[in-house]
Specification:
- Helix content is 76%, strand content 0%.
- By secondary structure, it is mainly α.
- The longest helix has 25 residues, at 2-26.
- The mean pLDDT is 92.
């Protein structure tokens, strides 16, 4: 029963995130395609005329952060057999980072540094967390391999972002590095 509850939480968190982003992108001040290719996820959460549903995107950030805290502390603590302290630390880093992204918006010179810090905590921390989870469980089966692959892809794409901040396609790379965590949450929900 415990794993079913966690599974439902992971499924709801991941699906809500994807649906909220798609709806927010639909009502963004650009075409749906251009929003996904040329505008960062963070831009969807800035309260301004470009993003009419900024609150929806920010609620998705908060929900995925809470999903990770609940799911990882509720169910994963039973499956992690090594690196438990680091696992808890990276769960908190990732979750707090995502919530910071929701609460402190980019685009404001006074707060953009905090927003960037939150984004790095969420993206880099989240993908390190995936690699850590894959190597900290008792066995190394299909689920652990999928988790490791997602984490490695996310880390590679994060470094592509880091060295291509000026690229017009940076939002595509950003999404790829974020979606690894969202896909993992969905796979985890199915797995539980």
């Amino acid at each position: 029963m415990k794993s079913k509850v966690a599974g439902i939480v992971f499924l709801i968190g991941s699906l809500y995130y994807l649906i909220a982003e798609a709806i927010s992108a639909t009502f963004f001040n650009a075409s749906f395609f251009n929003t996904y290719v040329f505008h960062t996820i963070s831009e969807l959460g800035i309260p301004n005329a470009n993003s009419l549903l900024f609150w929806l995107m920010n609620s998705a950030f908060i929900l995925i952060g809470l999903t990770l805290i609940f799911g990882n502390f509720y169910i994963f603590k039973d499956f992690i057999i090594k690196n438990k302290t680091i696992f808890y630390i990276f769960t908190l880093i990732t979750s707090i980072g995502v919530i910071i992204v929701a609460l402190i918006h980019g685009g404001n010179p006074l707060t953009s540094g905090y927003h960037t810090l939150g984004a790095v905590m969420a993206i880099l921390g989240g993908n390190i967390l995936l690699v850590l989870i894959s190597r900290s469980m008792a066995e190394f089966g299909i689920y652990q391999k999928i988790t490791l692959i997602l984490g490695v892809i996310g880390l590679i794409v994060f470094w592509i972002i880091f060295f291509n901040m000026g690229s017009i396609y940076m939002p595509v790379f950003e999404r790829l590095s974020v979606y690894t965590l969202i896909i993992w949450s969905f796979v985890t929900g199915v797995y539980c």
